[in-house]
Each structure stands twice: as structure tokens, then as C-alpha cells.
Hints:
CATH architecture of the largest domain: 3-Layer(aba) Sandwich
Number of strands: 14
Helix content: 25-40%
CATH class of the largest domain: Alpha Beta
Number of domains: 2
Number of helices: 13
Shape: elongated
Radius of gyration: 26 Å
Strand content: 15-25%
Low-confidence stretches: none
Distance between the termini: 23 Å
Amino acid sequence: MRVLVRYHEIALKGRNRPFFVDKLVLNIRRATADLGAFHVQGFSGRVSIECPDDVDWAVLEERLRRVFGIANFSRVLEAPRTLEGLEDAVLRSLAGREIGSFRVQARRSDKQFPLRSSEIDRQIGAAVARATGAPVNLGAPDTTIHVEVLQKHMLFSFERLRGPGGVPVGSAGRVMALLSGGIDSPVAAWRMMKRGCTVQLVNFHAFPLQDRTMIDKVRELAGILARWQNRCRLFLVPFGPVQQQIVASCPAPLRVVLYRRFMLRIASTLAYRHHAKALVTGESLGQVASQTLDNLSTIGAAATLPVLRPLIGMDKDEITVEARRLETFDVSTLPDQDCCQLFVPRSPAVAATLREAEAAEAALDLPGLVATAVAATEEERLRFPKL
């Protein structure tokens, strides 16, 4: 079986295109590593996958739908590079197949081929109509016969399945994403994967002050995200001791802002250790008290790396749609005990200033609390598929 993978955004990369294609080839190999002996290589501005005929197509299709950088893909058949040979191959492949209405859509990448795409469309379409009696429908056909005229190959297929788009994971550097058990943060991490980042995940939990439901949820969410980048690191930070110090020493209205500032400090330290170049959060402007513009500014000032907020302009409905598509929504909505809800004041500050936050933190041993939390952090490594 041969599968032809097509990309779109990668094609715009100019001289850097080979780098992105190599990353895409590597990621396809990783995503299919347990399915058998695959031969994956760049091929005439596309990527070709050759694999055993007995590979389960449904499984392979599901894997390719999760490889960022793929615009679309299809199983293809090869025909001789003549119109007569193409016609014969297409008709033999259609034998016994119910196609309903149809159209032919040819693409002539090899401009030396004597017939133009429109001529191939007309002549193959006429041959199919004569042989099958099926009507032509150029607007909304039941079947589209795709023909690709390449420099050394003539390929055709009867399907074109959508990939996730974007650019290959690993082509844009490494980031550290703060992952809670909520709806937003998994979507934020996923969107950065789609932009080519290798995403490491860090979660802040309050066990044993709270139960383990948060940790269990986050592990499940990390497992879902790992299916999109094949390899993933999850860092579990015990945050309860930091919260206890804040509650004991700082004004109650500032607690949530100070929690978040410490999370960014700890995440920054972990990011430096593991060569990540930015932090990622699931914050959306104005969604909760800690996400007002004033609070976001005050919280972000504690980070020593850029803070990326890919959901900042999205509303909850938009984020929920993406979470459902990503298949994290059902997990995210399971009940848990979120550490940010521990010791939350009745009236949290909605416009905390940097001066107020720093004055409150003067009562705390900032380096010591960060170092203790980092030292107690547990790391887990996830891999998909498991070999």
C-alpha cells in the first residue's frame, strides 16, 4: 500500500523547506512505529509512505490525522505515464465499485507532460462515464477521482482525507506548558504543538492537602496530548507548601495572583533546566479574576521567560469546541480538587499591581520556596505508540 501525504504551509518555507519535510518524515515514522515496516520519504513535493498491504487502514488513518504538518493524505495507485495506461488503470480499479456521481480532478505537477490537467479531466471522465454509466457532477460528486502527474509517476486515488495542518512538531523549538485539569490548558498546549513546538507539561497539585484526582486527570490529559507529538514529559510539582506559606504571610485578596506568580517562577526554573524557551498558559482575557489585564500583567512579570497565551482572545465556547475536537473535554470536566481553589479568598483582587504583589512577597523566601518545589518535582515520560 502506498499513501501520499501532502503539505501546505511547509511548501511556503522556501530554502528551509527540507528541514520541515525531514521533521514531518520523522514524525510520521514515530506515529507509525508499531504498525510494521514502513518506508517514509520525501517525494516530489510530498511525502510517500509505503507499507505492507495488511496494515489496518483505519488505524493508519487515525495516526496520520494526528501528525501536524499534514494538509491531506490518500491511498494512491500507480498507472503508466500515458493517457491510455491511466484510463485502463482507473477503470480496472473502479470495477465492482459503486461510485454514484463523479468528477475527475487532475493536477499536472510535471509541466512536460503533453496533456494539460483540464484535458486529462475530460478524457478520463468520458471514459469512466462510458464504462460505468455514472453521471458527472462537478459541484458535489459522490466520488472524486484524483490524478497526480509527477515527474516520474502517474498516481490516482479515490479519496483525500484531511490532516490537522500546521507545521511538524519539533520544528519550532521547545516550550513548557502549564497544564491544569481544566478545559483551557490542554487546548493551549495542543495549539502550540500545531505551531511546531515540542511541548513539555508541568502541573501544580496540592497532594496530600487535597486528594489525587487532579494528578490522575492530568496524567490522562497528558496521555491524550502525547498522541499528537508521540513523546512527552510531564512534571508534577507539589505546590501545597508554597500555598501554605502564602496563606500564612500574605494578604488574602492577593493569594491567587501570588499562586500564579510562583507557578511561573517554578515553571521558568524547570524550563531552563530542560531547554524550553518559553512558557505556555491557557489564560483567556477576563475569563476569571486572575485573568484581568491588570492581573495578567502582574503575574507575567514573575516569569523569566516569554509567556505565550494562545487562547487569550478566545471565549469559553470557542475553547470548548476545540477541547471536544481534541477529545480532552470529557476528561477535563471530571470532578477534581484544583490547587488554585485551595484557600481562595471570598474577594480575590482583580487589579493587583506589581508593587502590591512584590510588597506581599517580601515576607516570603522566594528562592527557597522555588528551590524546594523544584527539588520535589516528579517527572514522568509518556510515549505513543508504546513499543
